[in-house]
Structures are given as structure tokens and as C-alpha cells.
Amino acid sequence: MKILGIGNAIVDVICRVDDNFITQNNLTKSTMKLVDESEFKKILSTLKIEETISGGSVANSIVGLSQLGNKVGFIGKISDDNLGYKYEEGLKKENVKYFYSKKKEAIPTGTCLILITPDSERTMVTFLGIAGKINENDIDPNVIKNSEILFLEGYLWDEGEPKKAFEKAINNSNKVAMSLSDLFCVQRHKPHFLNLVKNKLDITFANEQEIMSLIDVKKFEDVIDFAKKVERLIVITRGDKGAVAINKNEVEECSAKNNLKIKDLTGAGDLFAGGFLHGLINNKPIKESLQNGTDMSSKVIQIIGARLNK
Questions:
Q1: What is the rounded distance in angstroms from the CA atom of residue 9 to the CA atom of residue 105?
Q2: How far is CA 155 from CA 58, 131, 225, 246, 291, in A?
């Protein structure tokens, strides 16, 4: 396999809301909030669902890679329930090999409410369900050894069982990439993420906000200096300023596309990572890989949801 992803197996429930809804529910626009099942149901009860689709950050990247013709797999924890079934079917349909056997769990399959405001920003409310309970027994070292790159998401990292699963996966990998996922995620796990970026990860994906928070700097030039020092590949998306990849002393840039009819920013970072990894795994230069990522992310923000139609 070219790339194996390990991430939260989450079913996305997409709804349109106005800005007042975000304020009234004490949410911070463009971020992800973790909630328990009752709060999730309470918020959902007032909404009209537009679409339900298999999601999860790394899973979205893996589906993008599959659509580009790469042989890929995914590990993520679901329950043997209706949403779990939908999740598995969604991956099969996209030719992603799913390395997890679902069982009837006490906790249901994870769900994420994706709230799209009129400015196309997306704010997420996530009930992780069983997805957040991944443990080392869910990780098959042979599957990892048989993939060229292991791709992880910061969303999945947590103290206890998920951390052990992460460590087992990283220790068996040939090469490992990770997305920092979300600003709140970075702030919650800063020392751990910093250690991973400096010492464990071959490739780190982040947006400008996340990486600047991680290393506590105010100027983007300091991010470039940091990346050069760690001597690992760090890939940063900067919204309308485009994207940058720093690999040792080499700095490559790619500008953002203009005049796009943006509908929904869900999955922009996920598809960018998928496009970039597609270039990398097929031995394309870094500049071209950045361009691939930008192309994929430009396509997905012009549709609703984080999965491109074939």
C-alpha cells in the first residue's frame, strides 16, 4: 500500500446555519468543539440536515488519494450500528481498504456536525463516540509495515489508549506524516505535538495559525527558521497567501487560486494533504506536490462536504 491513514472514523452531518446559531450555542467559528452525546443531540434537534457522509480528517485525505489512483487503506474505530455500517460502505465505495472489524460497542459510532455559515466557514461539533477509544489492539503492525507512508491526525491524539495506539503505529512505520488538525487541538496537546514534530514525524501538515501557536511565535519568518532547524518536511497552508513547504534549507511556495466560487471550506486542509501526499508518493518535486494539494483543496471548497465526486 502507498499510504495508510489512522484517524477518527466519524460520520459527517452537514447543516446550514446563520451566525446567530454559532453565538447562541457558545461555539467559536471555524473551530471544532468536542461534546458529549446529550449536547450533540440537543444541538442537532434544532437543525435541518442537508447531507450525511462518511468523514473524519485523515479519512477524507485517504479518499482523495484513492480518487487519484493510489492504493490506500484506513484504520478507524466504529461500532456495529447504523452509522458504522454507513461509514464502512462509504469507504468501500471509494476503493479504500478498511483494516478494522466492527463489533457491537457500548458507545455508538462517532458523529460530527458540520455547521456552514453564510460566509462558507465551517464550525464543527463532534461527538467522538467509539472513534476516540482507539487502542493499541486496533493497530495491526503488519498492515503498517506494508505501507510506504503512515498518515495520522492530531484530532485522534489523546492521553491513554489513543496515545498508545499512536506510539505503536509510529514505531512500526516506514515513514510517518501527521496533520496538526485544529488550533484547539494544538493548544490542548502542545508539548506532545512539539515533541512529535521535532523528533518523530517525517512530514507535518499544519495551517499558519496552528504552527505559530505550536511554537509560540508571532511572525511567519520564525516558522521558516524553526522548520529549517528541525530538518523535517513541514507543509503549511496559509489561506489566500497560498502554501509553503520547508524541507531542510529548501523553501517552496505555491500561490492560492483566485476567483473560486467558495461554498464550504470543510475538507480544504484534508484534500490539500491528500493532493500533496499524492505528489510525494509518486516522486514528484515538492513544488509540484504543493500545486497538487492546492488543486485538490480548490476543488473541494467549491462543493458542499469534504469528499469530491469522482
A1: 14
A2: 9, 10, 26, 23, 26
Distance CA 120, CA 30 (A): 10
- Record the cell numbers describing residue 48, joined without a space: 435541518
- Those residues whose C-beta lies under 8 Å from the C-beta of residue 183, and which sit 6 or more positions away, are 31, 209, 210, 213
Band of pLDDT at residue 267, cut at 50, 70 and 90: confident
Q: Is 123 helix (H, G, I), strand (E, B) or coil?
A: strand
Q: How many CA atoms lie within 13 A of 186 on its CB side?
A: 22
C-alpha cell belonging to residue 243: 502554501
CATH architecture of structural domain 3-300: 3-Layer(aba) Sandwich (3.40)
Q: Can you give the pLDDT at residue 126?
A: 93
Q: For residue range 127-147, list pLDDT tens digits in order.
A: 999 999 999 999 999 999 999
Distance of CA 215 to the CA centre of its chain: 20
Residue 229 has which C-alpha cell? 532547524
Q: Are the C-beta atoms of residues 163 and 193 closer than 8 Å to each other? A: no
Q: Could you tell me the sign of the dihedral formed by the alpha carbons of 274, 280, 286, 288, in that order?
A: negative
Q: How far apart are CA 128 and CA 117, in angstroms?
A: 22
Distances (CA, A) of 105 to 6, 109, 112: 19, 9, 19
Residue 92 near residue 59 (C-beta atoms within 8 A) = no
Confidence band (pLDDT; 50, 70, 90) for 264? low
The span from the CA of 215 to the CA of 226, in Å, is 8
